[in-house]
Amino acid sequence: MFQKLQRKWKVNSISLVLILVTFATGGSLCGYLGKLLLGLTGLEKNILWFIIYIILVTLLWPLCVLVISIPLGQFSFFKKYITKIFGRFTGKKQPSKMRVAIFASGAGSNAQKIIEHFKNSKTVEIALIVCNQPNAGVLHIANTYKIETLLIEKERFFKGDHYLNDLQLKNIHFIVLAGFLWKIPTALVQAWPSKIVNIHPALLPKFGGKGMYGNNVHQAVIEAGETESGITIHFVDEVYDNGKIIFQATCKVEPEDNTDSLAQKIHRLEHTHFPEELEKVLMK
Ligand code: GRF
User: Fold this and answer.
1) What range defines the domain where residue 84 resides?
2) Distance from C-alpha of 164 to C-alpha of 161, rounded to nearest angstrom
3) Is there a domain that residue 70 lies in?
4) Active-site hit among 117, 140, 162, 200
């Protein structure tokens, strides 16, 4: 139950304890204040007293939890929480955020940069991490940021329902591939037309296609004697590394570069540009 709450509210275990303490203390404080105020009126404890008490406590509750939340460092959580409840009563619904799923199977450094970038966004929520490697670093990152994960398996992804229903039920609006090596099945490409982007660690259309990932790409770039490499952010279609290019950035390939040093340069470019370019695409 506690883990469910942590995921729902996107908080770590310490914050969860502080939030629960705030609820409990704020609740008691408002009950106490309600009784105190009614005591001052000299009203008899009859049905009218109870009705006024309930109204008073309802009005005092937001104030009390907000006050208590300040010393406990949970003010921003409660401000959001109360605004949401208030919105429900007044029928003023908060605009729902665009829910983004990141597909990744590696260390997840790009996923992390994207998560950080949108952490306080009012319009975009990184809602799901989809991964096909049970030991991938990206799953730890998802856990740190309390983001839901979906571990997928090959047979079902390629030959089964492609997890289409799961993604639709989770209300995913947009998909980002950040170090995901499997080809995206046609059914998913068609279900999210122009709503899937990938980052490729080279300057497409060169050095793309099946088998061109990670160090294979950098090795091919060096062996071809290229003096320049870079990154490509592109839409995903039915063909590997083929969709419309959205953005490219370049870096020099020096004679002394090897696959590791080139990979580092590429990662730097990715971390600098991917979150911002993604935001531009999402805002269109
Ligand atoms: C990146 O270089 C990306 O271009 C490629 O896979 C790598 C993923 O790295 N598709 P990380 O897992 O984000 O650190």
Assistant:
1) 2-90
2) 6
3) yes
4) 200
